[in-house]
Request: fold
Amino acid sequence: MFVLVMDLPTEKDRISFCELYEKTSMRFMIIAKSIVHNQDDAEEVVHDLYVDWMKNYEKYRDKSLDDMMALGTVMLRYKAINQKNEKKNIWKNHQNAIMNTSIIKK
Reply:
């Protein structure tokens, strides 16, 4: 994560973003894990959130910590639910492929 921070244009932005990360990451991990029920998936969702924020940091740099927590919580829930649904669909497709293969072989 912190390697990506170097892409931010100013030292002030880099410091601000790192502080934001330190103040929010633990709570966001708890939220993500409560939705996806898997540590690796939760880490991926949280990472994706911070990458999105970093890419558009000029929009967020002047927002308060409370605003960022509220925005992050909404974005994180959306991302986590989408990821969970995608994994369900992949599993269903895999199960269907197995079922179709076993039916064809009979």
